[in-house]
Amino acid sequence: MLLSSGDQSRRRGANMSIRPVTPLTGKLEALVEDYQQWLVVERSLTPGTVKYRVGVARRFLSECADKDLQSLSLGEVTGFLLNQSSRLAVKTTKGLATALRSLLGYLYLQGVTDNQLALAVPAPSGPHGTTLPRWIPATELKALLASADRTTVLGRRDHAIVVVLARLGLRAGEVAGLRLDDLDWSAGEIVVRGKGSRTERLPMPVDVGKALVAYLRHGRPVTTCRSVFVRASEPPVGLSATAVGGVVRRACDKAGITVVSPHRLRHSAATAMLRAGASLEEVGQVLRDRGVQVVALYAKVDFAALRPLALPWPGDAA
Into how many domains does the chain fold? Predict the structure, then answer.
């Protein structure tokens, strides 16, 4: 096992990035470029996922630059993963292992190596579902939604972004990827382009619609860019997922609350739906999470429903 559960808490807050790589040349650089194209065309992965996996590929291949890839061994693969994971949390190490399996699977498909080493990449240890999803208390969420100065162009944009995140539970990348054509005003729906190139439609709540209209009519610059949310400064191009995170951080500072990520607003949206009486299946449909285990995590925060299931503590009757 790569990391124990005790390692997870000790490594929390450690450097989460892949270490710098030595630039590749010749056949290895061409191999990485072909791998990147395969991820985009054949796997239809999101730009962020492609960027991360290509980064892992560059690091791995840079350490194999003086070796024959045809003779790659299991020891070299596990040695790389152990070395890279020494400073990473369990969740990040799992992502690293997934990226490494992807690369090794590609190398096998292309005949670069005769061994299907992807099947032998160890799975980092760490129990699934042992933590509670973290959400923002209702009072803090109210302060966050009220933090933007909606008399300004920037304030109207930032308010609309926070409302979309908090009410629909979208990911930062999904908010950044929203396009004007994705807003179906006649049907009252929003088209969301999620993970794995999935396209799904969500109902547009009234407060979300009002926030978007206020921004589009009185805040969005005149531009040929089709992204819903664009930069307030020149050039007015679409925001990135990182920029969406920056909007949330600024809103937290203005609201005087602890800085959170856009994903925390996703957890808050799910928790609010559960407490309003929505089923886990309905929450999963809104969040577009396919895994039952992922959605079931939110059942843990429905304390009112869970309380009758708790057994009496010995000695309570005394």
Answer: 2
What is the Cα–Cα distance from 97 to 118, expressed in whole angstroms?
9
Q: Phi/psi zone of residue 121: left (φ > 0), alpha (ψ -120 to 50 degrees), beta?
A: beta
Helix (H) or strand (E) holding 156: helix 153-168
Judged by phi (left if over 0) then psi (alpha if -120 to 50, else beta), residue 126 lies in left
Q: Which of 53, 72, 155, 56 is nearest to 120 (CA)?
A: 72
For residue 221, being part of any structural domain is answered with yes
Contact 280, 183 (CB under 8 A): no
Based on the fold, state whether residues 91 and 150 are members of the same structural domain: no
Q: pLDDT tens digits for 62-113? A: 887 667 788 788 888 888 888 887 777 777 888 888 899 999 999 888 888 8
